[in-house]
């Protein structure tokens, strides 16, 4: 039985493939497909990382049988001053290191929990498999900036 966490690692790699084109970003804001938010390369990386951290913490709490920490992120509605910085080769390397480690940690955590835990009902929360499937949607953040011409 394949660990559902591996699909999170795959989604992270897809995000990083897109991010590799962001060295060509000209500083213009990217409006999300819903027209409600602004994205920049740094904001997309931040949101991908935050989303992975949030659900990794949720999984840890669920496995420990304790309450999850309430979500207090500003999330996508806020664009920080730092999000507007130029996206450099060093930023890409940092994003690769950070996001790959987060994706792998998530996959390893599910592997350690084992198949018996993946589909265990955790009402009102999702199952671990459902959380992993949801995390594949981090690709959406990368797609809001998109593949930029080199």
Mean pLDDT: 96
Q: Care to count the β-strands?
A: 2
Main beta sheet: 2 strands, antiparallel
* CATH fold descriptor: Four Helix Bundle (Hemerythrin (Met), subunit A)
Shape descriptor reads globular
Secondary-structure element pattern, one letter each: HEEHHHHH
Q: What is the strand content? A: under 5%
Please mark out the parts with pLDDT under 50 across 5 or more consecutive residues, or reply none: none
Strand order of the largest sheet: 1-2
Number of domains: 1
Share of helix, binned = 40-55%
The CATH class is identified as Mainly Alpha
C-alpha termini separation = 40 Å
What radius of gyration results from the CA coordinates? 16 Å
Structural class: mainly alpha
The number of helical runs is 6
The CATH architecture would be: Up-down Bundle
3D structure, described in words:
The protein has 150 residues and is mostly helical. It has one domain (6-145): Four Helix Bundle (Hemerythrin (Met), subunit A) (Up-down Bundle), CATH 1.20.120. The protein is built from six helices and two strands; from the N terminus they run H-E-E-H-H-H-H-H. A two-stranded antiparallel sheet has the order 1-2. Helix 1 packs antiparallel against helix 3 and helix 2 (41-64) runs antiparallel to helix 6 (139-145). The chain is globular, with a radius of gyration of 16 Å.
């Amino acid at each position: 039985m394949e660990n559902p966490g591996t699909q999170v690692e795959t989604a992270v790699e897809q995000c990083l493939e897109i991010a590799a084109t962001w060295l060509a970003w000209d500083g213009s804001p990217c409006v999300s497909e819903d027209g409600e938010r602004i994205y920049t390369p740094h904001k997309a990386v931040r949101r991908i990382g935050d989303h992975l951290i949030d659900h990794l913490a949720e999984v840890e709490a669920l496995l420990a049988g304790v309450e999850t920490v309430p979500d207090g992120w500003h999330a996508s509605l806020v664009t920080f001053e730092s999000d507007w910085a130029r996206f450099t080769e060093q930023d890409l390397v940092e994003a690769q290191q950070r996001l790959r480690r987060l994706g792998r940690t998530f996959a390893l955590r599910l592997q350690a929990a084992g198949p018996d835990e993946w589909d265990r009902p955790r009402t009102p929360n999702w199952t671990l498999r459902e959380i992993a499937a949801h995390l594949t949607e981090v690709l959406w953040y990368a797609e809001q900036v998109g593949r930029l011409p080199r």
